[in-house]
Amino acid sequence: MFTGRVRRMWRAVTYRLYSNSTSVGLRRDLRAPHAAPAAKRPFQVRPITSADQLAWLNVNEQGLSDEQVYARLAQVRLLGSGIETCHLAVEADGTPCYMQWLILSNENDRVRAFFGNLYPPLAPDEALLEGAYTPEAARGQGIMAAAMAQIAERADQYGARWVVTFVDEGNTASLKGCARAGFVPYLRRTEHFRMFWRFVSFTAVLAGSPVTII
Q: Each residue of 90-129: b (16+ CB within 10 Å) or e?
């Protein structure tokens, strides 16, 4: 019987052997007014710096579940990818409470190298939000939607009008957070794994389609 980390690794292997998944592509038009939602805890958004302490990504912390380790490792890998413009939401005492990358079109090659064909190439007036992560101690405070909205708005200073992100279709909490941050569905991404080969396709979400966020 598989236990602990081995079970999570086995799930990752079987997923790549044969699986089907669907994600929703969401987009925000920065020219359309949208009031950023408020979180229960105040914070400021800024780019990450080399001085920032990210102890909450420590995978050796005692008592972590397999899913927590997997999520933290994903963030560590993305930090090491060379993709720039990671942002943090930081509380008054300097404690980070959220992180997410605001990726511009000049990073298309790095995005492709790291993520493969998961995302359509960004146009010059587009930016991608990826790598959203809220430390366990900061969850349930409305921070994701509030921070995501503020990070997205920073794309305007780089000449982007549209900010896009993708969320698993079954992740209701994240979809609701994106809606509060001003994002609406515009694409559906279908992903198939067959014997470690990944096939990705995109279809437009038209007005009146069944993609809804309740």
A: bbeeebbbbbbbbbbbebbeebeebeeeebeebeeebbbb
DSSP string covering 114-172: HHTTSSPPPPTTEEEEEEEE--GGGTTSSHHHHHHHHHHHGGGGGT--EEEEEEETT-H
List, in order, residues 6 or more apart from 159 with CB less than 8 Å away.
124, 125
Q: Which of 17, 59, 1, 28 is nearest to 195 (CA)?
A: 17
For 82-127, how does the pLDDT look when each residue is reduced to its tens digit (9 = 90+)?
A: 998 999 999 999 899 999 999 999 999 999 999 999 999 999 999 9
Quote the pTM value.
0.87
